[in-house]
Amino acid sequence: MIVLGIETSCDETAAAVLDGGRKILSSVVASQDDVHGPYGGVVPELASRRHLEVVVPVIRRALREAGTGLTDLDGIAVTQGPGLVGSLLVGCSAAKAIAWAHGTPLVGVNHLEGHIYSALLEERAPEHPFLALVVSGGHTALYVVEAPRSYARVGQTRDDAAGEAFDKVAKLLGLGYPGGPAIERAARGGNAKAIRFPTASMSDGAPDFSFSGIKTAVSLHVRRAGPLSPEQVADVAASFQATVVKTLVRKSLRAGQRLGIRRLVLTGGVAANTALREALSAECGERGWELFIPSRALCTDNAAMIAAAGHDRLVAGERAPLTMNADPSLALA
Ligand code: KG4
Ligand code: ZN
Fold this sequence. Notes:
Elements: E1 2-7, E2 12-19, E3 23-31, H1 33-36, H2 44-66, E4 75-81, H3 85-102, E5 106-110, H4 111-117, E6 130-135, E7 140-147, E8 150-156, H5 162-172, H6 179-187, H7 212-225, H8 230-259, E9 263-267, H9 274-287, E10 290-292, H10 296-299, H11 304-315
Parallel strand pairs: 1-4, 4-5, 6-9, 9-10
Antiparallel strand pairs: 1-2, 2-3, 6-7, 7-8
Zinc ion binds next to helix 4.
């Protein structure tokens, strides 16, 4: 089954063609960093406008690289939510137009399910059940994936997402956008033990996350310390990154321990972070747990993961009507 995936939930316009739901024939990602960089964050109106400009060329390129035409498609999978409504609408409208014109089966995919599916696109894929830590710019949550397409959320952020914290701290440090890669680069030359930033633990013991406290702590530190030298910026970046990594690793391991699930998937944009990948690998290695981290290109937003998730839903007989609409707060579980 040849499936076209379309992803426009935030600030990447992406299209991919997959064969059998796992073989990537093409995966095109058009970043909008040039549009949002000057503002230090995603400007929703500009995001949807850029999606509108590039969605057709991006789809065309994905089809060309895969050597397929619109009439060869057995299905179309599009991100329905969660995300920015104006951005989602562009992808959904494009998908519906193709489905209507060619009578192609259509399915809506939850963006977070897509992120989890990125682990299934690697040669070494996890068996069920597994615990998935999804860490992105908009979400930070832990899911138990009991069986295919069966999700239960066991923890989530109570305020900011981890990626959001990276982006905001990068802005505070004048490191530019997107913040995650910028912090990672700056942290390389810094001392991760230079500053002690707070880690949040929930008074009710829930495996939930909170990143607004550390963001405020960094802001206070920067204000108190005055203009920072490049060395001081590196120390703040390294200390911040180490604290976030420690929290994410500790809470995931604790949840796995409590649930008796020793198989972890790490995914989402923040999973591109080397310090996080290495820390979780080390801890899982020590415990003999299985760990699955998709390649960086599959961790950050892409349409291959959407096509993979959509493929399985199409095979299961799911179809979206042409009245299907973008849902900015679509829940996974
Ligand atoms: O999954 P994603 O591409 O988009 C959303 O669904 O949100 O995640 C984007 C987020 C941004 O906040 C970005 O700063 C963060 O992932 N990110 C990183 C790294 N690369 C991207 N955070 C930390 N380290 C990285 N290397
Ligand atoms: Zn994402």
